[in-house]
Design goal:
- With 491 residues, the chain is of the alpha/beta class.
- Among the domains are: 51 residues, no CATH class; 108 residues, no CATH class.
- The chain is 43% helix and 15% strand.
- The strands form 3 sheets. An 8-stranded parallel beta barrel has the order 7-8-9-10-13-14-15-16, surrounded by 7 helices. Strands 1, 2, 3, 4, 5 and 6 form a 6-stranded antiparallel sheet that branches.
- It starts with 8 loop residues before the first strand and ends in a 5-residue tail after the last helix.
- The structure holds zinc ion (ZN).
Length: 491
C-alpha cells in the first residue's frame, strides 16, 4: 500500500490490514482530529469519497457494519467459560487503551462493548453506537482475537431487542425487580403465602413439587452441605421464585431470536439489597437448570459493599468464606463463571476471587485452566478519562469537579456510594499539579463517578475534544490502570 501521498492524514499503523485483496486502514486528520476509514480496492457497500487513490470513509454506522462484514474478527462472539473481563466505556473513546491492556493477558477474554440500559440512558448513546465505537477502537489497534459484547442489566424484552438488533453476544439478565427483598425477614407464615402466590405455571411446578425436590434434603456440593428446612426453602423460593420465572421468560425471548448457540447468558442479582446466601444461589441455579436455561455466568449479591469506583468495603474473611461456597456451587452446576459486578478497583478481593474460582477438575480443557470468573468494570474508564483531563487541561477539570460537587447529592440517589462531599478538597485550594491526585481520593472518585451523566450533559463536547486531542495520554493511563485489574487473574 503506497499511502505516502495522503496529505494531512496520519495512519494508525496497527490498523492497516489487507483482506481478500482489499486494503483497509484507520487514519486521523492532522487538522481536526477526525478519524477516517481508508480503503484501497473494493469499497462497495461503504460510503466515502475518493482522494489520492483511496476511498476515505467517515466513521458512520453504515461503514462500521460494512467493515464488520468484511473483517470477521471485528464481530463479537460468545466467549464461553474462559476467564473474562468487561470493559465498559461510557465515552466511546477507551477501547484502544483497553486493547493495549488486554494484549498483556492472553488468558483473559475481553468484552470490549459493555453498556447497561441505564448507562445508555444517561450518556444518550444507543447499543449500536456502543458497539460501533468498540469496533473502531479494535480496528485502530489491530485486535484480532475473540471478543464479546455485553448487553448489561436487561430487565424487559424490549431492552433485549435493541441489543439483539445491534449484534450483541453476551446478555446479562437482571431479574432484580422480581427479587422479593421482604422475604429476608418475613415470618414463615408470610413466606408460605408468598410461595403460594408464585407463578407456578411459568415455573412448571407446584408447591408440592418444590417440597419434594428440596424440603429436608441435604445436598453435598464439594465440601459443602446445603440443606433446606421449611423456613429456608420458603425464604429462597419466596425471595427468588419470581426472579427465576422472569429469567426464564427473557431467556426464551433470546433463544427465539438468536437460537440457543447464538448468544451467551449471564444472570445477575447483584443489585439487590440483601446478600445472596449459598442456599439461595443453589436454589436459583438448580431451578434455572430444571427449566432448561443455559448460562455462562452468574452474579450473586456478595457480602460486603461493592461501591462505585473504590475498593471493596467489608470483612475480607467473611467475603472469602461466602465466595468459596458460591464458587463451589458454580462448579457443581455449570460449571459457570461467577461474575463480579461493580468490579473495578476492587483490588483487595481480586487475589481471593482468582484463587477460589479455579475450575479444578471440573474444567478439563487446558484452555480453561484460569479462574471461572467474569469481572465487570465500567465507570473506572471514565475516571481515567478525567485523570487525563486533570493532566492536560487542569482548568477544565476544575470546572467539572466543581459542577460534580454541586450535582452529587442529587445524582448519588441510584448508586451505592458513601462519599461525603465535605471530604473532597476544594478544587480552588489545589494546585494544577495536585489535581490528578484527586483520582486517588476515595470521596472525589465517587463524586466524579456517579455524576457522569450530569457532567457529560454540561461538558461532554469539551471532554471528548480534549481526550481526542490527547488520546495517547488517555490510552496510556488506561493500559496501566487495567494491567493492575487483570494481572491478579493470571498465574
Ligand atoms: Zn451489575
Amino acid at each position: 500500500m503506497d499511502l505516502e501521498q495522503l496529505t494531512g492524514l496520519t495512519i494508525y499503523p496497527r490498523s492497516a490490514v489487507e483482506e481478500n485483496g482489499t486494503a483497509y486502514f484507520l487514519a486521523r486528520s492532522d487538522e481536526s482530529n477526525d478519524k477516517l476509514l481508508g480503503i484501497q480496492g473494493d469499497a462497495v457497500g461503504f460510503e466515502g469519497e475518493r482522494q489520492d487513490g483511496v476511498i476515505l470513509c467517515p466513521l458512520t454506522p453504515v461503514n462500521a457494519a460494512a467493515l464488520r462484514a468484511r473483517l470477521p474478527w471485528l464481530r463479537p462472539v460468545p466467549l464461553g467459560l474462559q476467564t473474562s473481563a468487561g470493559f465498559g466505556d461510557r465515552l466511546g473513546l477507551a477501547t484502544p487503551g483497553h486493547v493495549r491492556a488486554a494484549r498483556h493477558f492472553s488468558g483473559i477474554a475481553p468484552i470490549f462493548a459493555q453498556q447497561s440500559v441505564r448507562e445508555n440512558a444517561r450518556t444518550g448513546r444507543t447499543p449500536q453506537q456502543v458497539l460501533d465505537d468498540a469496533t473502531w477502537g479494535l480496528f485502530q489497534e489491530g485486535w484480532r482475537d475473540p471478543w464479546g459484547a455485553d448487553a448489561d442489566h436487561l430487565k424487559t424484552p424490549d431492552d433485549v431487542d435493541t441489543f439483539v438488533a445491534a449484534g450483541y453476544t453476551f446478555y446479562t439478565i437482571d431479574p432484580g425487580d422480581h427479587v422479593d427483598n421482604d422475604a429476608h425477614t418475613a415470618s414463615l407464615e408470610a413466606l408460605e403465602e408468598k410461595v403460594h402466590a408464585l407463578p407456578w405455571d411459568e415455573l412448571e411446578d407446584s408447591p408440592e413439587g418444590l417440597h419434594e425436590r428440596y424440603l429436608d434434603r441435604h445436598f453435598k456440593v464439594e465440601d459443602l452441605s446445603l440443606g433446606f428446612d421449611r423456613t429456608a426453602l420458603a425464604r429462597a423460593a419466596a425471595k427468588y421464585g419470581r426472579a427465576v420465572a422472569h429469567t426464564v421468560r427473557l431467556y426464551h425471548h433470546l433463544v427465539n431470536q438468536m437460537g440457543e448457540d447464538g448468544f451467551e447468558l449471564e444472570v445477575s442479582v447483584d443489585e439487590t439489597e440483601i446478600p445472596t446466601s449459598p442456599e439461595e444461589h443453589f436454589y436459583v441455579a438448580s431451578e434455572l437448570e430444571r427449566l432448561g436455561v443455559r448460562w455462562v455466568s452468574l452474579a450473586p449479591r456478595y457480602v460486603g459493599r461493592f461501591e462505585k469506583g473504590v475498593d471493596y468495603i467489608g470483612d475480607l474473611d467473611a467475603f472469602k468464606r461466602e465466595l468459596a461456597k458460591h464458587a463451589a456451587i458454580a462448579r457443581a452446576f455449570g460449571p459457570y463463571k461467577l461474575s463480579i459486578h461493580s468490579g473495578s478497583d476492587k483490588f483487595s478481593i481480586y487475589p481471593i476471587v482468582a484463587e477460589l474460582t479455579k475450575g479444578g477438575s471440573v474444567v478439563s480443557e487446558a484452555a480453561l485452566a484460569g479462574p471461572l470468573v467474569h469481572v465487570k468494570t465500567a465507570g473506572t474508564s471514565y475516571l481515567e478519562a478525567l485523570r487525563a483531563v486533570a493532566q492536560v487541561a487542569p482548568a477544565s477539570f476544575r470546572e467539572m469537579l466543581t459542577f460534580a460537587l454541586e450535582r452529587y447529592e442529587t445524582d448519588r440517589a441510584t448508586y451505592h456510594v458513601s462519599a461525603q462531599q465535605a471530604n473532597v478538597p476544594a478544587p480552588d485550594a489545589l494546585s494544577d499539579a495536585d489535581l490528578p491526585g484527586l483520582l486517588e481520593q476515595f470521596d472525589a472518585r465517587q463524586v466524579l463517578h456517579v455524576t457522569f451523566g450530569s457532567v457529560l450533559d454540561r461538558f461532554g463536547e469539551r471532554l471528548l475534544a480534549t481526550l481526542q486531542e490527547h488520546e495517547e495520554v488517555y490510552y496510556t493511563l488506561l493500559e496501566v490502570h487495567f494491567q493492575r485489574h487483570l494481572s491478579p487473574f493470571t498465574e
